[in-house]
Amino acid sequence: MLQCVADMNLSDSYGNVGVPRQLVIKRDASCIPDAVAKAGLTLPLVAKPLVADGSAKSHELSLAYDQYSLRILEPPLVLQEFVNHGGVLFKVYIVGEAIKVVRRFSLPDVTKRELSKNAGVFRFPRVSCAAASADDADLDPSVAELPPRPLLERLAKELRRRLGLRLFNLDIIREHGTRDHFYVIDINYFPGYGKMPGYEHIFTDFLLSLVQSRYKKRSC
């Protein structure tokens, strides 16, 4: 699904949206360093489970700092270049035409010094879960500022068309040090809307709009 975002090459006066470079590893961890080198990915790398089955392990992220530690990862997984983003991500819920954005704490930035000194794999369970809300936190305004609404509306509209989905959410980050350079790092279809503020009214309105649309078609 992230490939759809990459293919859009979305860029306008409100900003540009891309995806970090990534690589799918289905088996044989011993081949990961060579595969990463061949793909030209830059460390550190975020490792995400390829299968999301709702278990605690499926929500666990790992951050690999060096080539040697890549061999201890557990396929199947997705490796994604880590982009510094101020430790905050934007969870964008799409319910039909409605868009709701919340801030969540994310992985901390990695400095060049940390990258040169640290080695191994660091694991982060339940990153960006509802308990990690950053909406009321005292954040740097440059980090806390939400992505422009027109940019999100254009992105959501195009993804609805390309993916054929009406219920999904996006995890979006802003590259640290920029104001308008965004990355979509994850897409989830039919996510847990109970975590979305005001979901009752938004979801009810969505269901009513579907019924009304179907009724109008029958009347015609």
TrEMBL record:
Listed EC numbers: 2.7.1.159
Matching PROSITE patterns: ATP_GRASP
InterPro entries: ATP-grasp, Inositol_tetrakis-P_1-kinase, InsP(3)kin_ATP-grasp
GO biological process: inositol trisphosphate metabolic process
Keyword hit for ATP-binding: yes
Keyword 4Fe-4S: no
Keywords: ATP-binding, Kinase, Magnesium, Metal-binding, Nucleotide-binding, Transferase
Cofactor(s) of this protein: Mg(2+)
Gene Ontology CC annotation, any one: cytoplasm
A molecular function (GO) term: magnesium ion binding
Domain (ATP-grasp) ranges: 9-219
Subunit record text: Monomer.
Similarity section: Belongs to the ITPK1 family.
Name of the molecule in the record: inositol-1,3,4-trisphosphate 5/6-kinase
Gene symbol of the encoding locus: LOC111312513
